[in-house]
Design goal:
Elements (H helix, E strand, L loop, with lengths): L1 E2 L2 H18 L3 H20 L4 E10 L2 E10 L7 H4 L13 H7 L3 E7 L3 E9 L1
Antiparallel strand pairs: 1-2, 2-3, 3-5, 4-5
Helix pairs in contact: 1-2, 2-4
């Protein structure tokens, strides 16, 4: 799904909540997923100048989960380690988007190339 405007960030939250309910996540896990998705969608819009979200239901032997992939073709992240530190921001936010999403997820991966964009993949298991 595209992330190109503020309304899309709201739509991301709604869709992630719907998917997490269908998969059977409890309220706490739903809230963690929606919060992480909201932060990453906002980052995709603001810093990546828009992008996309892909949602996948995943199954691993005994567990079901949800994987969210956020991608953009923005300027990229020069220093991923620095960007993952609490309080670091290149904008006017609190600097908790990436680090917060990492804490709220069971799986977290970020890749970025300067001038080419950023990809953040998070996952949560039931």
């Amino acid at each position: 799904m595209p992330i190109a405007a503020d309304d899309d960030v709201v739509r991301v939250r709604q869709i992630v909540r719907d998917w997490s309910i269908r998969i059977g996540f409890g309220l706490v896990d739903q809230t963690k997923l929606v919060t992480a998705a909201s932060e990453l969608a906002r980052n995709t819009l603001v810093y990546g100048r828009g992008g996309t979200l892909r949602l996948d239901r995943v199954v691993n032997d005994r567990r079901a989960g949800l994987r969210l992939t956020f991608e953009d073709q923005g300027p990229g992240i020069a220093d991923i380690d620095l960007a993952l530190k609490d309080g670091y921001t290149t904008g006017s936010g609190l600097g908790l988007g990436l680090s917060g999403a990492r804490r709220l997820s069971h799986d977290f991966e970020v890749t970025s190339r300067l001038g080419e964009g950023t990809r953040v993949v998070i996952g949560r298991w039931k």
